[in-house]
Every structure is written in C-alpha cells, then in structure tokens.
Design brief:
37% of the residues lie in helices and 8% in strands. It is mainly α. A two-stranded antiparallel ribbon has the order 1-2. The longest helix has 20 residues.
Length: 145
C-alpha cells in the first residue's frame, strides 16, 4: 500500500507491506519501508513514538480509523542511523560510474565489495558475490607484487 503522495521511482518510496507473508505465523504483521526523498518525512522523525503516531494516522485515514484500535506493538529500525550501514540499498537510478569510484581501495589497504560497488545489476546477491571475488583477486594481485 503506497502512502498518498508517495512515489515509487527516482524519488524513493514509502510503503506498507505484509511483513508476515510466507512466514509460519498466525499473526498479522504490517511492515513499513521507506527510502529516498519520499521517505525523508519519515526518517527525519527521531522519536519512535512520534513516528508510530504518524504512521497510524496515515493508516487510520486509509482504513476509516481502524488502524489505531488494532495496533498492538511495534519494532523500529532506521538503517540510515546505523553507523556502518547508513541506508537501505543501492539506488537503481544512480550513476553507475559512482559505484566504480566507491569500489576503489583506500591506499591498497582497505577494499570494498558488495552489490552497491559493482556498477551493474545492483541489489542482487550474485553481484555481491562477484564483487567480493573481484576484490579478493585485487588483494591477491597486490600480495604478489
């Protein structure tokens, strides 16, 4: 369920989703995911309770006030505040050359690998694995010099 005013394109997205889908549970779990410009109004809220009030008000407006009475509890995780994560996943609409710049080693001592550094097929596990292989080869080549 996309929020009113949200887009699912270069601006990012802000959506509710069934977080219990394909899980062995009899509970109803509603997830919320946002990133990019569309999610900025949510990620800028640092107080979890204020964020939940905002999300419940959005749901109440979508479902005739039924969300707040059905609410039980919440768990939040803001990846943009995690010191070694700082966000969700790479941007499919970004500049692919940026990935190659980001993948450059730091003084041939620190190497970066992952789907975001490949410059193609971003957000896929196989690309993360290939990127790791490529960085490992760089390290081996340096060790042989």
């Amino acid at each position: 369920i996309e929020l009113p005013g949200s887009t699912n394109d270069r601006e990012g997205e802000a959506i509710f989703y069934n977080a219990a889908l394909d899980h062995d549970t009899d509970r109803n779990v509603l997830g919320f995911f946002c990133h990019g410009a569309s999610g900025a109004s949510f990620t800028s809220i640092e107080d979890d309770d204020a964020l939940i009030r905002l999300l419940l008000s959005q749901l109440d407006s979508m479902f005739s006030g039924a969300a707040t009475p059905a609410y039980r509890k919440h768990i939040t995780q803001d990846w943009s505040r995690e010191p070694f994560i700082k966000g969700t996943y790479s941007d499919f609409f970004g500049d692919p050359n940026a990935a190659h710049v980001l993948a450059q080693s730091l003084d041939d001592r620190v190497f970066f690998a992952g789907e975001a550094y490949a410059g193609h097929d971003w957000a896929y596990v196989h690309v993360a694995a290939l990127s790791g292989r490529d960085r490992a080869r760089e390290v081996v080549d340096l060790a042989r010099r």
